[in-house]
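Please decode residue identities from the backbone states below.
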């Protein structure tokens, strides 16, 4: 682990249902350093997505404690929680989740459009700059259907960066891509981590993604069963 701790979980547990309960996460304690690239691996149903959703404050734990960038997020509610999430965290999903009727530029702007007047910067300009960083400056006015899978995922990464988050959570970001496009996205994730210092937590089945992470945490049945540091 490098730098100060930016994500800490303490006995984090998530149980779904009543009666026939499903324990999706079972007492996970971990610490992730600022600027670290961590891959979370494990079979389907091991708790990878649940862990990312809890870290990203998209879901609440049944028990346990979560501290993100020094803030106990369990103490936040409503708008305070939403504002914290928007300021600190960016999300990248397997199936891109781009709005098909919006251009690449508009998709990148989308998370901050409701807060445009509160932004202390030109949102359109920032979105265009991010597309250029991702090598898509000339594709800004294209709809998602006019872009390749790798290009769509790069738009999704640019969208995750528009709020300048300190953490990016990516759930199977290469799961819907072929091998060539997977290499492309892996390279961009590495660049974000190294050049921008963004903390990356990536849930993946792909050994190529796990191989470039600084650490690999393996989950099974909702528990951490192994941690490996890559050289």
């Amino acid at each position: 682990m490098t730098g100060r701790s930016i994500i800490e979980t303490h006995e984090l547990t998530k149980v779904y249902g009543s009666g026939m309960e499903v324990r999706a996460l079972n007492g996970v304690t971990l610490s992730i350093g600022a600027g670290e690239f961590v891959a979370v691996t494990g079979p389907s149903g091991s708790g990878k997505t649940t862990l990312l959703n809890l870290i990203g404050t998209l879901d609440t734990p049944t028990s346990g404690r979560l501290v993100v960038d020094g803030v106990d997020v369990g103490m936040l509610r409503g708008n305070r929680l939403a504002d914290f999430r928007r300021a600190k965290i960016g999300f990248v999903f397997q199936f891109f989740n781009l709005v098909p009727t919006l251009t690449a530029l508009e998709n990148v702007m989308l998370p901050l459009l409701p807060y445009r007047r509160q932004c202390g910067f030109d949102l359109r300009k920032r979105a265009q700059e991010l597309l250029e960083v991702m090598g898509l400056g000339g594709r800004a006015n294209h709809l998602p259907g006019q872009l390749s899978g790798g290009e769509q995922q790069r738009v999704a990464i640019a969208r995750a960066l528009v709020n300048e988050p300190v953490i990016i959570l990516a759930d199977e970001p290469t799961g819907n891509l072929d091998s060539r496009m997977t290499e492309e996205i892996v390279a961009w994730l590495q660049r974000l981590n190294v050049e921008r210092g963004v903390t990356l937590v990536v849930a993946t089945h792909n050994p190529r993604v796990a191989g470039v992470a600084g650490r690999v945490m393996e989950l099974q049945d909702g528990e951490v069963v192994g941690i490996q540091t890559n050289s």
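Observation: The CA atoms of residues 126 and 162 lie 7 Å apart.
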